[in-house]
Amino acid sequence: MAAMTSSGSDEYALLRHHGDVDAEPGLLDFAVNVRGSRPPDWLRDRLVAAVDRLGTYPSAADDLAAREAVARRHGRAPDQVMILNGSAEGFALLPRLRPRLAALVHPSFTEPEVALRGAGVPIDRVQLDAADGYALHPERVPDEADLVVLGNPTNPTSTLHPRAVIRALARPGRVLLVDEAFMDALPGEPESLADDTDSPGLLVFRSLTKTWAVPGLRAGYALAAPELLTKLGADRPQWPVGTLVLEAVLACSEPRAVLHAESDALEIAEQRLELTSALKALGVEVNEPAAAPFLLVRVPDGERVREGLRARGIAVRRGDTFPGLSPDHLRIAVRERTAELLAALTAELAVEVTR
């Protein structure tokens, strides 16, 4: 574990790298973990209908309706829900909790570290190991950490941590943030803590971006005890989220949407198994067990392979911007048209063999 406070290094710049940078226009995109290229028709229709309400300010009633829908979805009370402009806003709000020491479980999504380091919060990286599939070990988290951040399932490793193991990190005087941005892409949402109202200091972030293909909308929400949400959202501006975000959160929390997401999750699970088998048949090292709509792989001379795939029209996510990973690590989104990806990867791996 390494304590860090600086935000002026090249490493800090790498932490701000995201998959959309790898997915240049014209490339077949396996770098970005967004399902589909546009929202489903029913959601688009809801958003289009809501455009006529843009002539008035978002109302308290709109906000309450969205929070009530989320609360029903997760078996909570509305005052345990805060609508966000995506999980990214939630990460940006973390310094308002005034942590003395933040323990960040890595490799994982880097925006929480960007926000905390930028605010001068001391950081302790808790590095997980490839040898056991990047399994979570609560005993590695320093006792003095009053903020612990982890993803479940974790980006980019695709590791799903057991609910009971995560709960072992909760204690009075500590905020335990679990980023569940991809949880609705798993059938049945196993190991989710979205309905947990008993663990002290638990804070859960959820995102609409991935499943509903709305990254341009920036929509998500936080789940926690009311007093924790009040502290997190202190001094947010008036009308912190817009009408379209509130409508999207409301629509995507309704039973029909939950069933839609479950159907997609079953399809993703099948596609992930097929892609895993195909990659392993090529001799590619795949991190397992994998649960999310993406895979973390390791290939020799990974930077060259990634650039070679780009030259062949395929975008994959570089892995070396995630703490603890190397240039040989790549993240590959689970989606259709894998035949083109596999053909290009086969060609690139053959180049490596013949060099």
Put the structure in a nutshell.
By secondary structure, the chain is of the alpha/beta class. Helices cover 37% and strands 16% of the residues. It contains 13 helices and 13 strands.
Question: What does it look like?
Answer:
The structure is a single chain. The protein is α/β, with parallel strands linked by helices. It has 2 domains: 3-37 and 258-354, Aspartate Aminotransferase, domain 1, CATH 3.90.1150; 41-254, 3-Layer(aba) Sandwich (Aspartate Aminotransferase, domain 2), CATH 3.40.640. The chain has 13 helices and 13 strands. It has helices at 10-15, 19-22, 41-50, 60-74, 86-93, 111-118, 163-167, 209-212, 226-232, 243-252, 255-281, 302-311, 338-354, and strands at 3-4, 28-30, 81-84, 102-106, 123-127, 147-151, 175-179, 202-207, 220-224, 285-286, 294-298, 314-318, 329-333. The strands form 2 sheets. An 8-stranded mixed β-sheet has the order 1-5-4-6-7-8-9-3, with helices on both faces. A 5-stranded mixed β-sheet has the order 2-12-13-11-10. Strand 6, helix 7 and strand 7 (175-179) form a beta-alpha-beta unit. Helix 4 runs parallel beside helix 10 and helix 5 packs parallel to helix 6.
Average pLDDT reading: 93
Distance between the termini: 38 Å
Which word captures the global form?
globular
Order of helices and strands: EHHEHHEHEHEEHEEHEHHHEEHEEH
Task: Report the sheet with the most strands, covering strand number, pairing sense and barrel closure.
Answer: 8 strands, mixed
Q: Which class of the largest domain in CATH terms?
A: Alpha Beta
**Annotation, overall tally of beta strands:** 13
CATH architecture of the largest domain: 3-Layer(aba) Sandwich
Counting H and I runs of at least 4 residues, what is the number of helices?
A: 13
